[in-house]
């Protein structure tokens, strides 16, 4: 097994971990929501969305790490770097959109409001 194959396996494992985190996180969030509905009679849909958004953000960040490892070490070509750049831009936009959805404001506005 050579150097590139080891890191290809590492990248695949990291990407798999990102998918597993999102799948398990979805299950936990839904079970928690159902528990709240059964226990309290109502569940907070807003809290469900916030928790699900957090799970997706964590999964996306881990998937980005796997993509970076794969591109830098395993598939180093101009085309793969451009594809990685596009993937990172798309996932960054998704992360910002999810952050706004979760907190109701841009990340830099939240920090400024917390400091005041």
TrEMBL record:
InterPro entries: DUF1622. Keywords: Membrane, Transmembrane, Transmembrane helix. The chain crosses the membrane at residues 16-35, 55-74, 80-102. Coiled coil: none annotated. It comes from the Bacteria. This is DUF1622 domain-containing protein. It comes from Kribbella soli. The lineage of its organism: Bacteria, Bacillati, Actinomycetota, Actinomycetes, Propionibacteriales.
């Amino acid at each position: 097994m050579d150097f590139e194959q080891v890191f290809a396996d590492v990248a695949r494992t990291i990407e798999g971990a990102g998918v597993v985190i999102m799948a398990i996180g979805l299950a936990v969030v839904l079970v928690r929501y159902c528990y709240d509905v059964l226990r309290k009679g109502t569940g907070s849909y807003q809290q469900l969305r916030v928790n699900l958004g957090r799970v997706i953000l964590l999964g996306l960040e881990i998937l980005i790490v796997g993509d970076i490892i794969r591109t830098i070490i395993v598939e180093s070509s101009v085309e793969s770097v451009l594809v990685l750049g596009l993937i990172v831009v798309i996932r960054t936009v998704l992360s910002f959109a999810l952050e706004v959805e979760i907190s109701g404001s841009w990340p830099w506005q939240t920090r400024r409001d917390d400091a005041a």
